[in-house]
Design a protein that fits this description.
Blueprint (H helix, E strand, L loop, with lengths): L1 H21 L1 H7 L4 H4 L5 H25 L14 H25 L2 H4 L10 H40 L9 H45 L8 H44 L8 H55 L10 H16 L23 H13 L5 E2 L2 E2 L2 H23 L3
Antiparallel strand pairs: 1-2
Helix pairs in contact: 1-7, 4-5, 4-8, 5-8, 5-9, 5-10, 7-8, 7-10, 8-9, 8-10, 9-10, 9-13, 10-12
InterPro entries: DUF3537
Pfam family, one: DUF3537
Keywords: Membrane, Transmembrane, Transmembrane helix
Length: 433
């Protein structure tokens, strides 16, 4: 008994230590030396610094660079015919991201916004999983930002170093070009970081609900009261509605802005006489990949949590069916061939073994799978099970955008519309058919 108690205490301490070690990211974001850059609006001084940096790197530097470095007299390799689309696309998306982050920080604070204040109500497994995902999310953020920044750095360093006197400068050419290159790279890094940060935060909040759903699904594998199951699911649905309400404007605006940006890019690059090569359109391609990948993070995260939430309906229906079938088996009673055997348990074991041998590892969803579930028909009546299944069928949970459910079907619809518009535009510009 003492050994078991010591083991439990050790596991709990390790879990707390693990969570605290991963929350250094939150402490860093809230620190005085960093938080005012992106998030903190807690006092007028930090808010002024944050908005000043926003105006400098999102509005001031892009406008000046576009006006000063149009370089119409440069050779073909150093002209920037698509710079207006690049600057507008990045600046608008970063503006939307900054406004969203400022609103989140002012209303909720970072810890409450990421539901860290609710982790005391969930299991240790969910807390540990969320802690690990928090750390991986920061790695994901760096994995998207760093390659884009390095690629843009290589392009701008080449552009300034090889342009020479063709590129406008003030007084000393080396100091002027170095300073301008540094400001442009800082502006690019700032804008892409803002955009990716909101996308990754959305992914992180969705992942917590996935962990909660997976933990919630285990209620069907043990003796649980229908009221407890219902209250837990209502809490998850409420959290999903909160997430949807917080991010719906950002997701919809991002979808519209990225679509407009991509079609504008397609229109100018397919225009007759347009000069398209790696030196003139490289930055445009990098900008397009940045925006599309950020949108992909949001849509994929929304579709994944929606699919997970809707899988609960299938799990509940399967649980209800298994219990009902087992009830009928008990009403019939054991046959002479199997006087002492539990027919339903044998059928369940045979069915699970058969399906496990046919299915490859990792092919099934953890919730919506083909395995039978344990049956506790004597604990929960048929009427309660039927009522619970009816509730799940008529109360689908998931991420919504102004009432529009973001599931896999909606993603297919968005893709079909985008592809149709793309083919139509290509047909109008280059006669594609």
């Amino acid at each position: 008994m003492d050994d078991e108690r010591d083991t439990l205490v050790m596991i709990t301490n390790n879990s707390k230590r693990k969570s605290k070690s991963n929350y250094w990211i939150i402490d860093t974001l809230e620190s005085a030396s960093f938080s005012w850059i992106f998030i903190d609006q807690s006092n007028p001084w930090k808010s002024s610094l944050s908005w000043l940096m926003f105006f400098v790197f999102t509005i001031g530097v892009p406008i000046l660079s576009h006006i000063v470095y149009q370089c119409k007299t440069c050779d073909h390799s150093h002209r920037r015919p698509f710079d207006l689309i690049v600057q507008l696309s990045l600046s608008i998306c970063s503006t939307l991201s900054f406004i969203s982050l400022s609103s989140f920080a002012r209303k909720y604070g970072l810890r409450r916004f990421l539901f860290l204040d609710k982790l005391s109500d969930v299991s240790v497994k969910v807390r540990d999983g969320y802690s690990d995902q928090l750390h991986r999310s920061m790695k994901l953020l760096c994995a998207f930002i760093v390659p884009c920044f390095l690629a843009d750095s290589a392009y701008k360093i080449w552009w300034f170093s090889s342009g020479g006197n063709q590129i406008p400068y003030i007084s000393n050419i080396y100091i002027s070009h170095t300073l301008a290159c540094t400001l442009l790279l800082s502006s690019w890094l700032y804008r892409t970081s803002l955009f990716y940060l909101v996308c990754v935060l959305f992914k992180l909040t969705c992942f917590l609900q996935i962990l909660r759903l997976e933990d919630f699904a285990k209620a069907f594998e043990k003796q649980a009261d229908v009221g407890v199951i219902l209250m837990e699911h209502l809490a998850i649905r409420r959290t999903l509605r909160i997430i949807s309400h917080r991010f719906r404007a950002f997701i919809l605006s991002t979808l519209i802005l990225v679509t407009v940006s991509q079609f504008a890019s397609l229109l100018v690059t397919t225009e007759t006489g347009s000069l398209v090569n790696i030196s003139t359109a490289g930055e445009l391609a990098l900008c397009s990949m940045t925006l599309v990948s950020g949108l992909f993070i949001c849509l994929r995260s929304a579709a994944k949590i929606t699919h997970k939430a809707q899988s609960v309906t299938s799990l509940a229906a399967k649980w209800h069916t298994c219990a009902t079938i087992d009830s009928f088996d008990d009403d019939v009673g054991p046959t002479e061939e199997t006087p002492d055997a539990n027919i339903s348990d044998r059928a369940n074991n045979h069915f699970n073994a058969h399906m496990d041998s046919d299915m490859d590892d990792g092919e099934e969803d953890e919730l919506d799978n083909t395995k039978m579930v344990p049956i506790y028909k004597h604990t929960i009546s048929y009427q309660k099970r039927q009522a619970l299944v009816s509730y799940f069928e008529n109360n689908r949970a998931g991420i919504t955008v102004f009432g529009f459910m973001l599931d896999r079907t909606s993603l297919h619809t968005i893709f079909a519309i985008e592809m149709s518009l793309t083919l139509w535009l290509l047909n109008k510009t280059i006669g594609f058919s």
